[in-house]
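Worked example (supplementary).
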Amino acid sequence: MGDLIYLKENLLIAWEGIVSNKVRALLTMLGIIIGIGAVIAIVTVGNAMADSVSESMSKLGVTNVLVALQNKNSTDIGLSFLSGSLTESDLISDDMIEKYSELFKDNIEAISLSNVGGAGQAGDGKSYANVTLLGVNEGYETANNVSMLEGRFIRENDLKSRRYVAVVSDKFVNNLFPSNPDCLGKEIKIDTSGSIQTFTIIGVYQYEPPMMATSVAASDKELRTFLYIPISTVNMITSADEGYLAITVNSKSNINMSKFSTDTRDFFNAYYTKNPKFEVSAISLDSMLSIVSDVMGTLSVAVSVIAGISLVVGGIGIMNIMLVSVTERTKEIGMRKALGARNLSIQIQFIVEAVIVSGLGGIIGALLGFGLGFIGSSLLGHPKFPSVGIIVISVLFSMLIGIFFGFYPANKAANLEPVEALRYE
Amino acid sequence: MFESGLESSEKAELNDLNYTMYMRKIVKSFYTGTPHELEILHSIDLFVKKGEFVSIVGQSGSGKSTLMNIIGGLDRPTSGKYLLEGVDMGKLNANQLSDIRNKKIGFVFQTFNLIPRSSALRNVELPMLYAGVGSAERKTKAQELLAMLGMRNRMNHLPSELSGGQKQRVAIARSLANDPAIILADEPTGALDTKTGRMVMDIFHKLHERQKKTIILITHNDTLAEETERILTIEDGHIVTEKATEKIS
Ligand SMILES: Nc1ncnc2c1ncn2[C@@H]1O[C@H](COP(=O)(O)OP(=O)(O)OP(=O)(O)O)[C@@H](O)[C@H]1O
Ligand SMILES: [Mg+2]
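After joint prediction of all chains, the assembly is encoded as:
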């Protein structure tokens, strides 16, 4: 069988066909381009996301355990899922924390407490910078890897005396005192929802962009940074309930994290056995990572489904165009048969054409996905190129679509009767 | 190679007269098996010897092209027997018919029927491609044929860039690609002016005289028909007259 010898010729014939009708060929490829492009782009961005998440998590510290209130019998984890009205007696109290840190002192490095005191502006009376007021304790520094540039962080004495002291970011300093960055000891006025308080700057820390750059970063001038003050001071200003929705426990390294998490949860839950609505969860990095990979898994299934649909639509588009092409070229097919083309040669010709169109679509889609994936992952701060493997597989797969959806039109062409094809006007 | 399927008397007849084409009681109907059944060719007998130059004339719609399609193996008769060079065409499948058309027959049509997206050269290469000839050999042969037909300077042009006469010369070159013994030409001069038609006709004469091709020519032009060795007149699907011209010496 010499029919495959025609492959090169068929490639040429198909190429002539595509070149002579570029717009149509491009439109035909669109479904494939979008399908393949989407898969590659999203897989790339997904990888970058996974990197970004695990990086942020290791920045948070592998040794942290987040202790948080949650609704009883709820599978959702995290404060944003809390429902039902909370009273002060539901919160994690200082008393519990004290007992806890006493009991587990061999395991605990630091306990981080924080409470948002509101967003507002801080300034020296002339200029202002955006801040989020965050009440913290001394353990916050260790648990959250705050790196100090100047001065000191909030200390236990600041909490005890409810001092009006503040630790500000280097960005804040740049905004407020561009000419004279030596600001330790300076007084600033903080305006949060109407009440103005005066604080003394005791330290400057290095600003870190948030974990995931979900929103486009505002200009440095507009940037809102944390302004750390003693948590006791915040509670006084906002007259908040005594107690916490969540605390972060920074454990010593080289301990069994999952056992420590379980022990921690059991310890706090002992206080909540009689509580009708709430209990406490303790999540370590391990469990967070598994949540993240669950989310990523769901995401990639969704993407695969969308891409699959788009590829099927693309395939149907190819079939449609191939059917049109067969009809348009009926006379040509008749002539080829008159010249001695066997059915198989005609069939191969049209399948090759479908495969070229779909394969080209796959290549263009891969390039598109490559570009979009790179841009997307760069925006996440983890520039990534898709692997060669996924590109090869997706191009091969789109060619397979060409074979599948080109088969019926090609068969139709091959089985035309020579006279009838020649008579076709 | 193929079983001939002939009665022994017919076989003798075939051998004696050395027929290239042997047609007995060929009937062609359309819409067979429906109430609209339409018989176009009625029991045609046709014998063509090797190397003959035969013309077929007749009114439009009389069935000339229908007959030619059967002769060329493009279509199958509804009934009757047709042997081409001793091969029973009724016993061949589609691929075997393709091979016969490829190697034994060269088609020339009124409308040229060139592949529009391929150059003159590639059009001429096509029958050789389907015959499995290697690309270098194909190219050389196609160039030779085009040169022979005076198309040396137009080889890489697309059909749309050629005049009618040029297109027909490409089509003739293509029909000669696999050096077939038989040329079937269905009104090859029909779309050409008198002068160009003359040129095409001269090509056929040369092919007949120098290469001993068997040629069957359908034409509406009586003058051209007179130049062939034998004229068959078809009327309503019957061969009504067969006239040998003085060409036969
Ligand atoms: N596939 C077909 N289906 C139905 N009728 C057909 C078909 N092919 C040919 N015919 C009919 O057969 C008759 C003969 O057609 P044919 O093409 O052989 O005529 P012709 O002698 O070649 O005419 P012309 O000189 O105009 O080319 C016509 O009446 C035509 O309508
Ligand atoms: Mg006709």
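Two points are worth noting when inspecting this output. Chain B has a mean pLDDT of 89. Residues B 64-65, 186 surround magnesium ion (ligand 2) (CB under 6 Å).
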